[in-house]
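Weekly puzzle thread! Below is a chain. First person to post its structure in token form gets bragging rights.
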Amino acid sequence: MHTDNRYWYFKNSLTPEQCKRIIHTGLEEIEKLKQDGEDTTATTFGDTQKQANEDKRPLNDKSLEEFGKDSNLSSIEVEKKTYIRDSEVSWLRHQWIYDLILPFLHEANKNSGWKYDLGNSEPFQFTVYKPGGFYGWHIDGDSCHNSAYKRFVPGISPEKSNGQPEKLYTTNLDNIGKVRKLSMTINLNDPEDYEGGDLKFDFGPHTPGNRYHKCVEIRPQGSIIVFPSYTYHQVTPITRGVRYSLVLWTLGKPFR
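Winning reply:
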């Protein structure tokens, strides 16, 4: 799908005080989870995160093809020998955060010209990227009918070894029949606090101009970016310090 605006951003839109409050809330939730014996490492649908693949190598900011050329491996071999995600997360459902953030999402949806038919949003994902942390190339959702959430029925629907729903299955009745349409990322800390950790887009090999785009526009603290969830993107490895971000996915009926 082609759109005139591939993303929409708001620079320095949250105050440092608002960012610090979100960071404090996110870290507090992580600590609560740890005290309850919960795992706070970020996962992927295919269990391609670091903690499930400690004996493998990080894919970092390379594509499967690029990594394969450097290591003389096929794309299939690369997938078997690497992991694509290394970070820590907690989930925030605080109404004051929705009240603060959602107006930016709806403004972006309108001003960009997308005007997608949107419904509910998922919980916010607060993410901590420490040195070496990254998230390789991925999309947040395919946005077609085949990608719509299905109801998870324990003991009947596909589930992981820990009892959690497999990809595209959900216990949230509001999500059933919907797909991720818009993704939002918020940079929460001062850019002087860390190096690396850039949001980067891949717009495809036939894109006029540069195929890859590093989003320096949202490097300043409190900056927000919104983009269609089918867009390939990544977070490049952190080389110094710690990066805190807040991510939101907003759902709607599949494109027709």
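Puzzle host: Confirmed. Bonus trivia for everyone else. The first strand starts at residue 8 and ends at 10.
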